[in-house]
């Protein structure tokens, strides 16, 4: 039995019944990282000592007869935008290089309290700004399916770590699609929870009204188990929802039984490639997925959300505007990089030199866009109008959910593209989020589940099915996602069983 190949649920069961110890499981994954991460480059920092110590603590507590959580001893990779006490946290940026936080984010605290073993911090687009993990200040991450291609972004390190069998679980963040799009192009499951369902305390902020932490897993059940750990009200986050969330684990188990009778599934007309721009293989996989849902008893209806056509423009005004405000805190004074302080320069000069050296090109681009949109004379014309469009998108969702229980679309119009292929064209990069942006703007939950493989651009590469539900109805995503996953796996086998072997390591 190769411990690194087990699902999170099976790993937890093996630890609980004594088949393997938490230390053995942690070491197996550290060995896997050592064998493969030279190629994948998913991790910015591997905390082998901390992981083994946490695993040892789980084994000792279990030996002492303590009741432990359902994921105790299971390894996890953490996106480097989530603050971790005693472990470097850079948000993929030179401006925070070497920063070791004195406190834990709420997500980190909950992971630790659940006995989950954190292996290290994963690579990402700088400050979560990107769709390919090429905007990392350190190095790009490769897609385990084809090392010449991107793993998506901005949570590409977290998605690649799970797909490469380096960790059964990981945490990402999703502002405009940064969990769902990487999940789709690496063949794993990723879920963006309802905005406010998972605390943002301790997430290094990009866009405060959009940022949301969420789980990655190899299966829908694994993802649900991690979701259950990190969700819940947090008084440290003023946007945290004070009511309990739905039982996503039970929903995943129910869905796996394969019966969707009585569930209305809405196909969003505006997200089905009618205007072009979607790869044929993606659309073929989506149509097949809809047919599968119908075969499970779901009622398929078509819905129209006309304002979704403006989501891209609205998002790239709202998110940069909020980032221009949030990133003003990196002033060279309180923490992080400090450049040019030789005693002859003013604070303003030092601040300017630090930001010039510390921020990458994409971050600078978005700061400038956002600052312009918020400037005197332009606020109403740009930022104000974008917020009005956001309201119209939320209304489109509300209308659609009167006709359907969940909505579906492709997760991304494209499979993974080549490293370097789109870095010179920001608009070509931004359209990767075409399908994921509406749910982010409305604050509703959305999941990507593997829906097949497409070989139209070369090697067979994963495609994702996006499932969206009303706010605080995350359980619907898990039920439908698990039902589809079970049917797909029964017919074709799990997507990850078809991934090429990295470096000869099983």
Measured by DSSP, the beta-strand proportion falls in: 5-15%
Strand order of the largest sheet: 1-3-2-4-6-5-10-11-9-7-8
| CATH fold node name | Amidase signature (AS) enzymes
Rounded to the nearest angstrom, the radius of gyration is: 21 Å
Structural class: alpha/beta
Helical coverage, percent range: 25-40%
What is the average of the pLDDT values?
A: 96
Q: Tell how many strands the DSSP assignment holds.
A: 11
First and last CA, distance: 11 Å
- Element order: H for helix, E for strand: HHEHEHEHEHEEHHEHEHHHHEHHEEH
What is the number of independent domains? 1
Q: Which CATH architecture would you pick?
A: Alpha-Beta Complex
Number of helices: 16
CATH superfamily: Amidase signature (AS) domain
Word description of this protein:
The chain has one domain: Amidase signature (AS) enzymes (Alpha-Beta Complex). Helix 2 runs antiparallel to helix 3 (48-63). It has helices at residues 8-16, 22-40, 48-63, 106-113, 156-163, 180-186, 220-230, 248-255, 280-295, 311-326, 347-358, 361-374, 380-403, 426-430, 437-442, 474-492, and strands at residues 43-46, 75-79, 117-122, 169-173, 189-192, 213-217, 264-268, 299-303, 406-410, 446-454, 461-468. It is of the alpha/beta class and 506 residues long. Helix content is 39%, strand content 12%. Strands 1-3-2-4-6-5-10-11-9-7-8 form an 11-stranded mixed beta sheet, sandwiched between helices.
Provide key terms for this protein.
11-stranded mixed β-sheet; 506 residues; alpha/beta; Amidase signature (AS) enzymes
